[in-house]
């Protein structure tokens, strides 16, 4: 792994665990075992530029994983249940799902930094688009598919945050049962 990728990988984990404000540059430097000059060589604008690179990396990882699941299953309901089950298994095995959620970064930084807000908005939009395409393939109108995709994104992201705060997988289990019923009701 090259130095820039290593910095992004380690910083992403730190930002997800402690938040943007909770992680100092010195902590990132120490965790990466690099100098300040090396960090600024790759991220001349500093910590915020690094955060945006981390969000872009998360976007790629999350959307690739989500697209893979949604391509493997014939319907939105089956794909959604499989995706949530994967999140539950990961949470119960690792005790966290930080690799799949970035809400803590959004709540902390979106109102402070427009570039960070934009990066977060692009990630949410990418996830919604995956859901939207599957829903339209299932025969939903574009308007209905858009509404359901938005609700799915908010529900799943919210359930992940609740799992982290409650230290239990129950919120995802509930969403896994409720979302299919809601989708069928349209």
Count of alpha and pi helical runs: 9
Q: Please report the distance between the alpha carbons of the first and last residues.
A: 46 Å
- Assign the CATH topology: Tetracycline Repressor, domain 2
The tally of strands reads: 0
CATH architecture: Orthogonal Bundle
The helical percent reads over 70%
Write out the CATH superfamily name.
Tetracycline Repressor, domain 2
User: Main β-sheet, in a few words?
Assistant: none
Tell me what portion of residues adopts beta-strand conformation.
under 5%
The radius of gyration is 18 Å
What structural class do you assign from the helix and strand content?
mainly alpha
Task: Name the shape in a single word.
Answer: elongated
Poorly predicted runs? none
Mean pLDDT: 90
Output the helix-strand order.
Answer: HHHHHHHHH
**CATH class division:** Mainly Alpha
Domain count: the total is 1
How are the elements arranged and paired?
Layout: H1 3-18, H2 25-32, H3 36-42, H4 47-72, H5 76-94, H6 103-109, H7 114-137, H8 142-166, H9 170-184
Helix pairs in contact: 1-2, 1-4, 4-5, 4-7, 5-9, 7-8, 8-9
């Amino acid at each position: 792994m090259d130095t820039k990728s290593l910095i992004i990988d380690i910083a992403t984990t730190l930002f997800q665990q402690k938040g943007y404000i909770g992680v100092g540059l010195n902590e990132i430097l120490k965790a990466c075992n690099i100098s300040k000059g090396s960090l600024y060589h790759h991220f001349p604008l500093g910590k915020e530029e690094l955060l945006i690179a981390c969000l872009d990396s998360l976007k790629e990882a999350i959307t690739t994983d989500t697209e893979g699941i949604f391509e493997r299953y014939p319907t939105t309901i089956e794909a959604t249940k499989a995706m949530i089950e994967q999140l539950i298994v990961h949470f119960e095995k690792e005790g966290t799902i930080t690799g799949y959620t970035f809400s803590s970064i959004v709540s902390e930084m979106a109102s402070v930094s427009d570039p960070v807000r934009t990066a977060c908005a692009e990630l949410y939009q990418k996830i919604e688009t995956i859901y939207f395409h599957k829903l339209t393939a299932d025969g939903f109108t574009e308007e209905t598919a858009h509404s359901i995709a938005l609700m799915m994104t908010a529900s799943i992201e919210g359930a992940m945050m609740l799992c982290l705060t409650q230290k239990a997988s129950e919120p995802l289990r509930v969403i896994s049962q409720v979302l299919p019923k809601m989708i069928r009701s349209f």
